[in-house]
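Write out this protein's structure.
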Amino acid sequence: MNKTFAILGLGKFGMSVARSLMRDGGEVLVADNSEEVINQISGEVTYAMTCDLTNADAIRDLGISNFDVVVVCMAQSFEASVMCVVVAKELGVPYVMAKASSHRTGDILKRIGADQIIYPEEETGIRIAKKLTSNDFLEFFDISENLCLIEMKVPKDWVGKTLMELDLRKRFKMNVVAVSDDKNEMSHMDPAHPLSANETLLVITEKKDLKKIRV
């Protein structure tokens, strides 16, 4: 059974989340104050409803109690964010994610019941900065407060060597979990496989050890 999602607030971020969830096969309800915005996306999602997201009764009428996840996306409307989080938790929604424009507002949303706070602009900035600090980093993803997942090119002085020879776990405290070739086909890493320049590595490491990988 596919998960069901309610996206409350349809700025660029909310629109992107809704469309991505639909592509992944989810059942998606979207709601926004603007009828014009709702008309733009109504043909792309399961349900699309115009709603005053500062009004508790109007939010309840959306039927979000039947959804697995509610994503509150109005970072610029704190009143609406608070109301949506409070109502969603009152209705027993299992998981509520809320977008916040600052850590101060994020802390408040967390205190009133949000299960997860997201800072899209900050997280995007961190990813870009990590990519810029090393020519070998292609992508950077947070896994937890301490761990991250990196997609990286094979550095020149690793080419032709195997993971056993490089002993990366001991030297850099990194675990290579997969490798992809120039056709973008991902596979498990054979520790006896000599690395080539056209391959990319998928690596898990602690954030504090990132500087060690900038070889």
